[in-house]
Amino acid sequence: MLEPLVFYLLLRFRPDAARAGQARRIAASLCFLPLLFYLFLAAGQISAVRAAIIAGRERHLPNALLAAAVAILLVHPGAVLDVSFQLSFTAVASILLAFHLLKSGQDDSVARLGDSGQFRRLLLGVMRENDGGPRPRAGALKQRGLQLLIGSAFVSLVVFIGTLPIIVCHFNRLSLAGLLLNPLMVPLASLLIPFALFALSLAMVFPLAGGLLAPPVAVLIEAFHRIPTLFAQIPFASIPVPTPAALWVVLYYAALLAGAWSWLYRPSGKKGETPGWLPKPAWAGAFALGLFFFLFVPRLPAFGNGPLHITVLDVGQGESIYIEFPNRETMLIDGGGFYKNLLDIGNIVLAPFLWDRGLTRLDYLSVTHSDNDHIRGLESLLRLFPVGHFLDTFIGLPDRRIERLRRQARERSARLTPLTAGTPLDIGEVRLLPFYPSETFIRQSPSLAESGRIGNDLSLVLRIDYKNFSMLLTGDIGAEAEAHLLRQGAPLRANVLKGPHHGSRHSSHPAFIQAVAPQAVIFSSHDRSPWRHPHPEVIERYQQAGAEVWRTDQHGAVHIESGGHGFDIQGTVPH
């Protein structure tokens, strides 16, 4: 917009400068200070830095884009792993490649040099710049608006295809609404951002004048907020998808580049021209097949048995344990949860973790008891993941929240599978041995059974056995449950122990620790726990017993891997 205005002023007052082509240089100089101001407001965001570097270099955009990437990486080498860097540069590179392919497909040599009129005719196809006579002003405006809409839609589609793997890998979402939304939002943003910056700058010098512009800016901001909200309510506007394997990402981009190469060197029948090495139908089929695998077969096929994987997830003040068995079946025990669901652990922690593992369903789901910090995340997770088996430990015991969870599991076509104390459950070569709460304990504690909820002292306790490796999961049991297990002579000994009740001082008594004799103990805890979990006294007990202490508040998610003989344990935060 600035260059035509500068050209008009030069033509009026300095016609020699206008004819010498000074308009572009002057316009670029005038943009320098506003660009610096924009960079200051954007706090050096990668997309803003990239836009500033390539601004005014339309004739050499590929080189400018490469220079911008090199400049950013020289200052911040780690930016290559930043999602904003990946999205920003991939989107612009996709647009440049698409424009190059369109221009290369024209028969007019002038159009191949980049003439904008020829390019618009190519882009719009049936629309003509001039039908041989004067066009009414209203018709010209209508055509101009339609050109802008179609051009925005085309750019939106190009960016969607080019950035799809990055979006899926980082956000596990396939945003179909974005294809419809971007053609509206891009022109709106192009109007909102400069108008808002102008109003802000004017208000700094002339507050009254800036205040007069505030209402229209507010209207634009409100529209910028409400339009995406309305689109988000469309069914299937955003589809959750698992993270694809790295190989699928490579094949996806390989298919895109193969298509671009095929377009550039397509057969024309002219003597001396390079023939196309991949016909368009073959490329389209290969790309469609690659897209199918990319979206619907995210995990690479596994052959034979692998190791046992157990991950105690970092869900703050709560607990969630993910198990991947050697036969590749999966299980989740508990789902964490915050008070009054202020933070939806199921949506923002559990689901992304499972998608990152390439999962679209869970084979087994279980809950140790109905405390909010163990069950709440499962309630939201069940809306996203179908479940094969719901392992039901509390048949016959009343609890409103567990009954609701059962109902949700049945609605997701889960099979209710009893998990009874003393009855092992084999999953491939792994055995799950539950031994609490037993019928004996329930009979001895009628007040707990009739309380109407499955609380801490009725938490599921089970041992996972895989060849010579074992891990004991204890839920939130306290002193009474520990004493009962010791009296009953339960087989508590295990290589790894999930610490009872997050390390409460009212659990993990010395006799219980001695019976388990763990080599490592893991506490699911929060660094700002009001109950001081895990309690220093409890940590000292385990250290004196020779157990290595792991905490999710210090080490992040703690991962155990075992091939059945020994185990390897590590956290996501360096120990």
Structure description:
This protein is an alpha/beta fold and 575 residues long. About 5% of the residues have low confidence. The longest helix is centred in the N-terminal third of the chain and has 35 residues. The protein contains 23 helices and 17 strands.
Task: State the separation between the terminal residues, measured CA to CA.
Answer: 56 Å
Biggest sheet architecture? 8 strands, mixed
| Number of helical segments with 4 or more residues | 23
The helical percent reads 40-55%
Rg measurement, Å: 31 Å
State the CATH topology of the largest domain: Metallo-beta-lactamase, Chain A
How much of the sequence is in beta strands? Answer: 5-15%
Q: How many beta-strand runs?
A: 17
Give the strand line-up of the largest sheet. 8-7-6-5-4-3-16-17
Fill in the keyword field for this structure.
single chain; 575 residues; alpha/beta; Metallo-beta-lactamase, Chain A; 3 domains; eight-stranded mixed beta sheet; seven-stranded mixed beta sheet; 23 helices
